[in-house]
Amino acid sequence: MRKKINIAIDGYSSCGKSTVAKAVAKALNYFYVDSGAMYRAITLFALQNNCFKKDNVFDQEALVRVLDHVIVSFKYNTESGEQEIYLNGQNVEKEIRSIQVSNHVSAVSAVKEVRQKLVRLQKRLAESKGVVMDGRDIGTVVMPDAELKLFMMADHAVRAKRRYDELKSNGLDVSLEEIEKNIASRDAIDTTREIDPLRQAEDAVVVDNSALTLEEQFQFVVGQAVKRIDGMD
User: Fold this and answer.
1) How far is CA 95 from the centre of its chain?
2) Which of 25, 33, 40, 49 fits a disulfide with 133 by CB distance 3.0 to 4.6 angstroms?
3) Which is it for strands 131-135 and 31-34: parallel, antiparallel or unpaired?
4) What is the C-alpha separation between 178 and 201, in angstroms, rounded?
5) Residues 226, 93: Cα–Cα separation, whole Å
6) According to the 3-state scheme, what is the secondary structure of the chain?
7) For the CA atoms of 166, 206, 139, 214, what is the dihedral angle to 10 degrees?
8) pTM, rounded to two decimals
9) pLDDT, tens digit, 9 for 90 and up, residues 175-207
10) Domains of the chain, first to last
11) How far is CA 115 from the centre of its chain?
């Protein structure tokens, strides 16, 4: 039986990390963990429970006080063949993709207690190997010993168009300008936050996918994974 490795995929928002990670996990029969969905789920909880006040003022203390009662989990959907995110027992896979959640997720992700809670859970999920996890701090904090680390990036305009097309295809009414502002804001917060900022791991393989098709990205990442798996035999 071939040994399994862990694959950490980090990078900026709307770089296609999740799409590639899902495909690679399926091809290798690995467990896929969308860490961004976990932060989005807690952001959804914060929005639903009035942790954002008038003019979007974020009451961090209100969220921290109830954080122990927030349960985030994944369940496998046999029809779609994908892992889906649950918040306190409710499937919120669609709700967490809204532009409202996108506009607030970086602020929630910067809260120390939120990061500590989710990093603990993510580390537990990775203990048995055979995990593909994508996010902002996977190769640097969550899985620093991952056998394969990737850092994905793309041109700002390309990322905005990809995100715009994704949201429109899901029936959401958004503007490209709104998406561009959201991405720029998230980049600024993600790279400058005090706790676990987005940064490239020293041993990460950089993938600029501005001009790459999904198939080209998939083939490259699978090829990198197979090299490392073969090296363990």
Assistant:
1) 15
2) 33
3) parallel
4) 30
5) 30
6) CCCCCEEEEEECCCCCHHHHHHHHHHHHCCEEEEHHHHHHHHHHHHHHCCCECHHHCECHHHHHHHHHHCCEEEEEECCCCEEEEEECCEECCCHHHCHHHHHHHHHHHCCHHHHHHHHHHHHHHHCCCCEEEEECCHHHHHCCCCCEEEEEECCHHHHHHHHHHHHHHCCCCCCHHHHHHHHHHHHHHHHHCCCCCCCCCCCCEEEECCCCCHHHHHHHHHHHHHHHHHHHC
7) 30
8) 0.90
9) 999 999 999 998 998 899 888 999 999 999 999
10) 6-228 (3.40.50.300)
11) 13
CA 113 to chain CA centroid, nearest Å: 18
Instruction: Report residue 143 CA to chain centroid gap.
Output: 14
Amino acid at 131: V
Q: String of b and e for 114-140 (b: at least 16 CB within 10 Å)?
A: bbebbbebbeebbeeeebbbbbbbbbb
**Over the stretch 26-66, which tens digit does the pLDDT of each residue have?**
999 999 999 999 999 999 999 999 999 888 899 999 999 99
